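Hey, sorry to bother you again with one of my protein questions. I've been puzzling over a protein and I'd love to understand its fold better. Take your time with it, there's no hurry, and the full record follows here:
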Amino acid sequence: INMFDAKLSSKILGFLEEERKEEESRLCAKPWYEESTYFNERSNDLVVADEPLSAQVIESVLNDGYAIIDDFCGKNVCERARLAAEALRNDLRPAKVGRGLASVINKEVRSDMISFLAPEQNKHKGLQDVEFKLRQARAQLRWCGLINDKTVSTQLALYAGGGTSYTKHVDVREASCYADGEPRRALTAVYYLSKEVKGGALRITLLNNSILDLEPKADRLILFRSELEHEVLPVYFDRFALTQWWFRTNHLSAYLKNSKEESEQVKIDDQILCNPLPVFSVQANSSEEETIFVCIAAYRDPELKETLASLFHTAANQERIFAGVALQYDTLGGADDHWLPQPHPRVRYARCDFRDAAGPCPARALAQSLFNGERYVLQIDAHTRFRPNWDIYLISTLRQAQEYKSKPILSTYPTDFADCRDNTGTILAPARFDTDGILRFVGRRLKKTDKNVLPSPAWCAGFSFSRADALKDVPYDPHFRFLFFGEEQAMAARLFTHGFDFFTPTTAVLYHKWSRQGRPDFKRDHARIHGPGVQTELREQSLRRLEVLFGQVGDAQTVPDLQRFALGIERTLSDFEHQLGVDFKRRLVLPPARDAGLDQDAFLSTSSQNAASGALALVARLHSPAPAH
C-alpha cells in the first residue's frame, strides 16, 4: 500500500486547519460547491491531502477490526457540521428496529432519533466537508480491498439525553442471508459532532471478545467492522453523530482480482524499442546519486499502465527511477479499475476521485507532493512512451546544457505516437494569444543538427526534465483550478523569473499520444457532475489569478496564497517577454518569435498539405479542446 508520508500529511492538514478559519455567520451561506472541501477558495489545497487514513489506521482495521482517528476534520469543520445537524433536528424521527414492514419503534432497544441522508446533497451544506473527507477515507479502503462496492448509506443520529441508548447489536446480517452480488455492510464509520457529552460511549466487543468503551469526543471518527457487536451506553446530554456504512460484494471482489490479473501484461511498442537513444561518453553511473523522480498526473487514463511499463522497461538503469502518480479515477464505482496499474515498489500513488479533480495544476501539485528527495525530476503526461536509454540521455544532455546556463530545464512538445520511427526533435515557439489572453505555443520540427541541445524560449508541461531545484523553488500552484491553456504560460514565467533557462533536445526522447480517442473527457465529466456554471466560474477565477500574477490587473497582496506561487526576483517579466518576443499586455507576438531565435533553415517545412502527421499533431494542440490530464 503506497501512502503519503505521515509527517507530510500531518503538516498539510495542520496548514489547512489554519487556512480554513472563518466566521460562524458564514458557515452555511454559500452554494454547496463553494462550501465543499474541494471547491472552497480557502481550502482547495485539500486535494494534496487526499489520504486521511494513515497506514497504522488501516492496519488496525485489518488486524484488530477497529480504529480511532481523532481530529479527523478539524474543529471548524466539525462545528459547521454540528450546526447543520442542529438545523436538521426537526427532520429526525424515532429510530425503528427490524426490517421493512416488520420494523417497529421499540425504545427499550433503541431510543435515538435518526434521518437517513442522501450523500452530499445541497440541503446538507454544513455536512459537506465531513462527507467529502469520509469519501476520501472510503476511497483509501476500497483501494486496500476492505470494501469494494460504491454503495454508501448515511445516517444522522441524535441521542437526546435523559438516558437514551441502543442495546447490543450488529450492523450486518449473516453472510448466508445475502444473494451473490448483493451488497452487504462491511465497515461502520461513526463521526461525532457534539462538543459536550455525558455518557454515550460506544462499547464494542472486539474480535478477541474483549470489551472496549470509546468516548464520543467531537471530531472523532471510529471505524469498525460491521459484524462486531456494539452498543451505545446511556446518554445524558445531546449527542449528535454522523454514521456511514460502507459495503462490499463477494463476486465483485473476484471480478476485480481477475480483471487485474488478466491485464497485468502490457505491450511495449516494438518500433520504439528498436530505436534507442545514443549513449554519450559522459554517463551517470550511480543509481543512488542520480535518482530521477517522474511526476505524472493521470485523469482516468487507460494509457497509464503502459506508460509506467515503458518508463521502467526502457530505462538504462531502472534502480534510479521513482514515479509519483496522481491517480484521478472512479475510486468508488470501479468504472476505471481495468486500467489501474499494479502496485510497484518504485511507484508512489496519491489517489483522488475523478469527481473532485480540478484540472492539471492541482493534479500536478498532488503528484509533486510525492517527491522524496531525488536528484532529478521528469514531468510527463500519463500517455507517454520512451526510447531506450532515455534516463542516461536526459542526464547527459542536461549536463551539456549546464555548460551554458547554471539552471537548465529540458522541455519541448514530444512527437506523436504515430511517428515513433521519426527521431526529429522539436522546439517550442510562441504562436498567438487566444481570446482569453493566453499565449499559445507551437512545437516546430527541427532539421537534424550535430548539436544535442539548443536554447529554447519556452517550457511545456508534458515533458520537463531538470534538477530537483526547479520543483523545490517553483512548485505547482494548486489554485489554478480548471485552467488548461495558461498552465504553461504561468509556469514558464515563474521558472524563468526564478533564474531557470529552457533548452530542447534535438532528437525525440519520448513520444506522446496527442489523440484523445479512448480517454474520458475531463470537461464533459465535470459539466455533467457539477454543471457547466461551476467549471466556468472557477476557470474565470483562475484567469483572474493569472492576470494578477502577470501584473495586468489587481494587487497580488489581495489574492489568496499568491505570494507562495509568485514570480521570481532573479529576472523580470519584461526579460521573459524579450526572450519570447511577445507583449503580454498588448497581446502581441512579434514575427521573429515564431522562429524561437533560430534561422528559418533550422526547421522542417510544415506549410504544405502533405506535411508529416507528427507536425500536424503538434500544431493540433492549438486548435482542439484542452487535454484531460
